[in-house]
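Hi D.,

Good news: the full-assembly prediction came through. Inputs first.
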Amino acid sequence: MTNNSNYLVEMRGIVKRFPTVVALNNVDFRVRQGEIHALLGENGAGKTTLMRILYGMYKPDAGEIIVEGRRVIIGSPRDALKMGIGMVHQHFMLVDKLTVLENIALFVEEGFRIGFDRIRSRVEELSKTYGLKIDLDAKIWQLSAGEQQKVEIVKTLYRNVKLLILDEPTSVLTPVESEELFKSLRKMVETGKSIILITHRLNEALMASDSITVLRKGRVVAAEVKPREASRLDLVNMIVGRPLEFRPSVDSFKKNGKPVLEVENLRVLDDRGLVAVKDVSFILREGEILGVAGVAGNGQRELVEALTGLRKVEKGIVKIMGVNVTNASPKNIIRLGVAHIPEDRFRYGVAPDLSVAENMVMKLYGEKFSRKIFIDSEAIRKETEKLVQEFEIVTPSVNAPVSLLSGGNIQKLIVARELSINPKILIASNPTSGLDVASTNYVHWVFHRLREAGGSVLLVSEDLDEVLALSNRILVMKEGKIVREFGEGASISEVGLAMTVGAA
Amino acid sequence: MEIRLERRPTVSRRINISVRILAILFSLPFIGLLFAAYGVNPVDAYLRIFTGGFGSPYGFSETIVKTLPIGLCAVGLTFAYKARVLNIGAEGQLIMGSIAATWVALYSGLPQSVITIIMLLAGFTIGALWALLPAVLKSELNINEVIVTLMMNYISLKLLDYAVTGPWRGLTQWGFPQTDPFPSYARFPVIGGTRIHYYTLALLLVSTLILYVLMKRTKIGYEIRIVGSNPEAAKYAGISVNRNILLVMLVSGGLAGIAGVGEAAGIHGRLIRGISPGYGYTAIIPAWLGGLDPLGTIVASFFISGLMVGSDAIQVSLRLPSSLVYVFNGVILLFIVSSEVLARYRILFKIGGRKIWI
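Then the structure:
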């Protein structure tokens, strides 16, 4: 390709350093007009950082940006929007208590008075053009994550952007919603807009994009690859830097193992006191991985917290290894051999001011790493060094406070700790969220090994691929109830459909 | 030129200490302006404060006398603050300790041989119980401990006033708001020629060491640090947050109570109105200044006490108003608290193409 004029945006030699790491090392990145360009890479590869530079949120330490053939300096998101560059972040920037229309007005109105009627008609027109249906008078808090995303997209389109950057847009969507999103994106491209799709999901990049750039550890390893010309395996190797060792399977399941976790008519309330888990019953057996699929916020979190003693059970019975542990303390549940990888790693998973080593033994310090009332620091250091190596946790030292670690490495620390207690039951919520492809693969292998050794896993995950690849049985949760159960060999579309519409 | 704050990858003990010393040095010129406004040569004033607090045998011993109550309260507070339980009630807990000691000394009728030990036990217990109420309110009903402990200080202050002006007013005291003197066997012995009551000194040193080891090397300390860093994570790890809240409040309240016993039995030999000139509040400063480390806190308590003694000295010798001492302490504290950010962040100056870190 010699014709440079049809590049909408070019970034050349971009360097960005953070205090402890070089996030971007001499990155070149180009997007054509009228294409969906996937920016693919593991977490921590620098995708979001690169895009935040383009959106004016970060200043690069070196390099230049060319928009429509002109060299520009983008000092702030305001500058970026003026040049026609918009971004939808992973975490939405919406005011919960305001309506959709008010939120959009907040973002687009430049004058003193807000012309609601003008804005309404323009938004309705945009929604129709791109197939983004939203109720303009609903309050944000009443909307699902998928609907909120539509608001964010419309908000940005209103500013007449030529380039729309979407940061991991499908992470909050059901499979059906994802398909709808891609349809809308296609329509935008047809009207001449360009889209950058930040993603760590290979399938998504292959299916939805016209061109793929792969980042690894702050460098470009492949630029402007055409999805039709690329093989899956090649791309995995490019993303990870080496072939993956483990292919998940469900073969080693021994049927009819004895029940290790029995849940009967469980009812649990959420933080607002509303019923979040409605009379749920199921059994987890020895040597089984039981998947719980569902769109986030359908009672999974409350279910897991109730099972691990962190939330009060209103009604029903929980038995572990035949012992009634309904409303037992977390300590007693841990003692029965239950490990827990929590959904929100910052809320429960770690004590940020304490060191990596101190966090690594949070579950076992009382039994394995103390003599009488004293803590055995030497044994803790050795164990931590072993686990840090095994799980490839990147940390300045085992004595560094956890607050210095990246999200992915914190997740690895939690997974390493929970598996180090040799659990009989592992309750895992989105265990691989924020992990790179290689670490995800490693964690899947460890789950698999745990099952082979007769352990059981309750795998609560929003990542359908993960649930399908590992689980022997799958429960689908919707609005606090278990609406469907699938055996092995369920297809992604069946499960995805059950997640959205409920019982068939 | 561009100036930016960047987070330090690690915070060493050396940085922590040097930042605090720098903060104190930087505060001096500002206080100097104040001295100058009163027509006093600032350098002269600093020298007098320093020699007054640390330079003479008398000043040095008086500094230790003040370090006893301040240090006991402060070391206890580090324990609570580590668990992120913000006990502001050391003042009240101290006063309750002195009231308990007075009851034992004057009204219990216990045998002479055990009276001092019972006074200490009673002081610890009452101080701990005074802290227990806010602790239970916090752990059971999630009521803010800052407000409750602060309010309870006023209750104890009024109890003290009631005792010394009402039922316990000394018959031999010509109507002054104070009790009769304790019998000699209920008074703490002092190191000859000074006012240093060494029972309390020994207890201060021992409790500092115990808390230091407890915090750094034991399961209890480990649990407390987790609770302080993230209570949700503590619950998740099977650690009882409520039990730890109660524990740290009992210990910090108890140590403040012992400080009160020391003031009554070691210094005044009776209960008086205003037995503490705010030691329990002052102690909050060295607890943070010492980085919530018991050993650092003792050093900081000694330093703060020296400043107090030194500023008392210049009040007399330079005829400065007594309120100047509070301004003096306040300015130093302000500098130390603001310097905290420099321990965690470094400043990056970009001048032209050059980068300079501090």
